[in-house]
Amino acid sequence: MSDVKLIKVTVDGQEIEVPLGATALQAAELAGAEIPRFCYHERLSIAGNCRMCLVEVEKAPKPVASCAFPVMDGMKIITDSPTVRNARRGVMEFLLINHPLDCPICDQGGECDLQDQAVAYGHDASRYREHKRSVTDKYFGPLIKPIMTRCIQCTRCVRFSTEVAGTPELGAVSRGEALEITTYVEKALSSELSGNLIDICPVGALTSRPYAYMSRPWELSKVDSIDVLDATGTNIRVDSRGPDVLRILPRVHEEVNEEWMADRGRFSFDALKHRRLDRPWVKRDGKLRPASWPEAFEAIAARLKGLPGDRIGAVAGGLADAESVLALKDLMAGLGSQNLDCREDGAALDGSNRAFYLFNSTIAGIDQADAVLIIGSNPRVEAPVLNARIRKRAMARVPVGVIGPRPDLTYPAQHLGDGPDALRGLMDGAFGEALRKAKRPLILLGRGALRRPDGAAILAAAWKLAQSLNAITGEWNGFNLLHNAGGQVAALDIGFLPGQGGKHLGAMLGGGVDALWLLGADELDPALIGAETFVIYQGHHGDRAAARADVILPGASYLEKDGLYVSTEGRVQRGRRAVFPPGEAREDWRILRAASDYLGGALPYDDHAAIRQRLIEVNPVFAHPDEAPVPAPVPGAPAGDAGALGSEPFAPAITNYYQADIFGRASDVMAECARAHAAQGAPTPAMAAE
User: Which residues form the 4Fe-4S Mo/W bis-MGD-type domain (predicted)?
Assistant: First the structure.
């Protein structure tokens, strides 16, 4: 900030200092004045086309649009005067000439900027009696419901699609009164961030199709929580009415998600009503039958009784909360088992040092990167909000290179190769020179590069590359691992990995253990489990893993329990319960605590305070919520031979964005999205540079 030149401006008689280049609107807000606006948005380019933000400037012949008017030293701005009021009333009168009078049926009613500002700044009557125009309804896909008759042509949606999402599908056709915002050719929007159009639309022109006519905002109970369907750690608000979640909205967190949210986390909550497990089940005579909780626990105890610890194993899934993972680890320790694994995709993750498995540069740190190398990852589908951050840097002419399948990343990227061969010869090419010149290079390693036989070698090679670029120091750590689910990092922090003499996932499958406890391990292929293995499935949906189980314990989803999660950058965050789980389903750590009574070793915690204290004992990072890790020199390197790279091309970690997890597979809305996008064909990598 010391390099920013400040100038003095007077706003409504109050003299303040503002950065040179600030607009009159920004200066007024720094002075505490409220300026109405429709087209202006802090994260989008300035359009200056709604004119609602008019203010007076001394010596100016007429009111000026404050959002597009740069201030000068000594300028005097008046934000509230008879002239300003009359100008804003006139603008509002024009905006409402063609706006339909359908507030009683508009989903935006009660939280509509136009509605609020019409009351605050408009006339109490209109002088216009002409017929209002109408616009034919468009189709924007299963998520967005456009009613463009309400559109005031603020172009926020056009600018968001082009500038933030990187999918320039929206634009204006015709002129004057006939102007319309449209997709040109009617189609479903292809962006994984399309739901944010609903949030930024200041009127009811773009609303949520799944939420249409469901409720009014004052009917809803609101709970702050965390989206765990990817590992970004997006801050969310869950709106519910009674037992039903009706919508999920993003909350502002500048260091994590700014104010954006990915579509799968926003819209897949209808899965809470489909294929749910709401009571225990026990397999008898080859068929799963309903049971009581004591019967389920007794069946587990009868099967595990007498089994040596090395014949019992446990796998934690990517959506499990930290408390549940810790309870399962403690339960397995009580049974004498070291057979633990949280890598249900078989990725070669090294848990010996936190820096080996975190997004060490931090998500906000992407804004400082001056070269980006992506290895075996497509962040557009693995973490759409994080991808939007990378796009900002790419648009600032920061070079981006990709090793792996050729994706459409929504920004220019140099494709360097399909597999490890490109990594071997990277530093001999032009992009290698760009990495050498970079002061803060960012290497992003995806799960698609690690869930292979040579995954450990690739992890070691990426770390070695970062070290050779002097990218791992006390000021900057450019080595970054991008996870795909919000529970993965917490499990690694807890140490849910094979202990001394313990078996990893591959060794447990195919008969390596006699009993296998699956905690939300929904991405594990159950066909790999040995036919004689006794399987306990604990989770919330009747997916493929539940179908293989001998005992099913119904748990709660992330929207139905309080729990701690750790994002890909290592930030501990708290998810809160929005609704109660259905039927007899319970919080997962409480199920494990109850099961421990039947297995002969009761776990030493009975409430959230006690288990969270136990979490802090296991790893002190859980005592520091919402803190990103601070870069520090890291001794050693991940286990693996950096020279033992294979030659097979990297495979994508996610092939179907909308159905990439158990929520997406159980959601009718996500299924409709998958069908719509399959019908349109795969997106063309139009913006990917060779």
Answer: 220-276
